[in-house]
Design brief:
Layout (H helix, E strand, L loop, with lengths): L4 H37 L3 H37 L2 H12 L4 H8 L3 H21 L1
């Protein structure tokens, strides 16, 4: 069964979006854990309630991180398995959201070749994802 090009492009966009979200969540977790240690020092009743909220937030963030890490790690495996030129194209197109003109200059190819390269990249990704 063929995976549609649009779906493949959506997966690539999600990969880069999730990588950014993963970094944001890791920072949030670090902040929450810092606040947790500060709250533990307080003995007031209000502090205990706040600690429960922080603990719950930490568990939620850790759960989100695990889910994102699974997708990102699986997709990074695929990315590391494909041709370096394809990875450069993917990074420019979907990671940096660059235009065909910019990509053609960066990769030293014609704009028409950018379109052909896109098709080759999506075809190779389709094969990799089908095999997962």
């Amino acid at each position: 069964m063929k995976i549609r090009k649009k779906l493949l492009e959506d997966i690539l966009k999600k990969f880069y979006k999730d990588k950014k979200e993963l970094e944001r969540l890791k920072h949030k977790l670090s902040t929450l854990e810092r606040h947790e240690s500060e709250v533990q020092k307080e003995a007031s009743e209000n502090g205990k309630s706040l600690k429960t909220d922080i603990d719950e937030n930490i568990l939620n963030v850790k759960s989100e991180i695990r889910a994102l890490e699974r997708f990102v790690l699986d997709f990074e495996f695929v990315m590391n398995s494909i041709d370096e030129d394809y990875r450069a194209f993917i990074k420019l197109r979907y990671g940096e959201k660059r235009s065909n003109t910019y990509i053609s200059i960066e990769l030293n190819i014609s704009e028409a070749s950018v379109g052909r390269l896109r098709n080759k990249v999506l075809q190779e990704l389709e094969e990799w994802l089908r095999d997962l």
